[in-house]
Design a protein that fits this description.
single chain, binds 3-isopropylmalic acid, about 40% helix, binds manganese (II) ion, globular, 11 helices, alpha/beta, about 350 residues
Length: about 350
């Protein structure tokens, strides 16, 4: 049976990297049917909307969504994201944002004396609430009495399901989990977070759990990356720390993510961590590896574990060989040349 994949290249370099991911998936010979949906900021310029009115109903009919990047200077970011990416994550309850942070062989990371063996983490980011709840408002707009309120929302249910997933991954990996918190300054939300994680820790007695405040975690990732295995973090903390993770991987252009809908509420979505990168868009210079790596996560999610492994090994081989890399990794190859090299390497 063939799986139907909704392909949303989106904006900027999203449109350059997504075809490379599709190219690599096609080279594997798996029965995937790709259908492109031309949504994003250009669509907004034509129609006044980021996606059609029935977009979420349309997406619900697919087995997975493969996305490039959303956002362009012509549309305010809070509009483009809140009318496209964030409703998809929330509507389909893609409650885990899974982000592997691994330095591939041959890539020089920014940390002196640290190599691939030292940077191998798996981030599990809560993906539906927290600081991304969208709760709040503004009053007295434009006056000097103006007030803006943005209310983070944390629920036991959402913390629990995300943290449970993280414990399960930790159990399969090196048995260590860091829970990122800020329950010193926060008196309610992160205290609840800690309590829920603490409850699960009793259930997963074989997993060693550490509670680390987010500020200390930023330093820890730089100073002792080898001490970190699986990480569970709230939406905003996970967002910030995985950009740091991208830097530790050698380039944000390598970083991959899976927005996993694990409760049967709709398709999952796979996208590189980087954005639309207006500064380099249209030049064929963007690194497609983050998008290709995200394709590996898509394949694994749909049950093609062997093919996912082939894609990940191809990424390692192309990185290790070092001859066909984009500028962010010190090479001179184009986006399409790296895609071609990866498609050959999986073949
Ligand atoms: C990410 C991005 C998004 C986020 C933005 C574009 C809303 O930075 O996927 O990490 O903050 O989640
Ligand atoms: Mn981000």
């Amino acid at each position: 049976m063939s799986h139907r994949i909704a392909v949303i290249p989106g904006d900027g370099v999203g449109r350059e990297v997504v075809p490379e991911g599709v190219k690599v998936m096609r080279a594997l010979g798996v029965p995937l049917a790709f259908e492109e949906l031309p949504w994003g900021c250009d669509f907004h310029a034509r129609t006044g909307r980021m996606m059609p009115e029935d977009a979420l109903a349309t997406l619900a009919g697919y087995d997975a969504i493969y996305l490039g990047a959303i956002g362009w200077p012509t549309v305010p970011d809070h509009v483009s994201l809140w009318e496209c990416l964030l409703p998809i994550r929330k509507t389909f309850e893609q409650y885990v944002n899974l982000r592997p942070v691994r330095l591939p062989p041959g890539v020089r990371g920014p940390l002196a004396g640290r190599g691939p063996g030292d940077v191998d983490m798996l981030f599990v980011r809560e993906n539906t609430e927290g600081e991304y709840s969208g709760t709040g408002g503004r009053v007295h707009v434009g006056t000097d009495a103006e007030v803006a309120v943005e209310v983070p929302v944390f629920t036991r249910r959402a913390i629990e399901r995300c943290a449970r997933y993280a414990f399960e991954r930790a159990r399969e990996r090196r048995g260590r989990l860091v829970s990122v918190t800020k329950s010193n300054a926060s008196r309610y939300a992160y205290v609840l977070w800690d309590e829920v994680v603490g409850g699960l820790a009793r259930e997963f007695a074989d997993v060693q759990v550490e509670r680390v405040h987010v500020d200390a975690m930023a330093a820890r990732m730089v100073l002792r990356p080898d001490s970190i295995d699986v990480v569970v973090a709230s939406n905003l903390f996970g967002d910030v720390l995985t950009d740091l993770g991208g830097a530790l991987q050698g380039s944000l252009g390598l970083a991959a993510s899976a927005n996993l809908s694990l409760g049967g509420r709709g398709p999952s979505m796979f996208e590189p961590v980087h954005g639309s990168a207006p500064d380099i868009a249209g030049q064929g210079r963007a690194n497609p590896i983050g998008a290709v790596w995200s394709a590996a996560l898509l394949l694994r999610h749909l049950g093609y574990a062997a093919e996912a492994g082939r894609v990940e090994r191809a990424i390692d081989a192309v990185c290790d060989e070092g001859r066909t890399l984009t500028g962010d990794l010190g090479g001179g190859a184009s986006t399409a040349e790296v895609g071609d090299a990866l498609a050959r390497a999986v073949g």
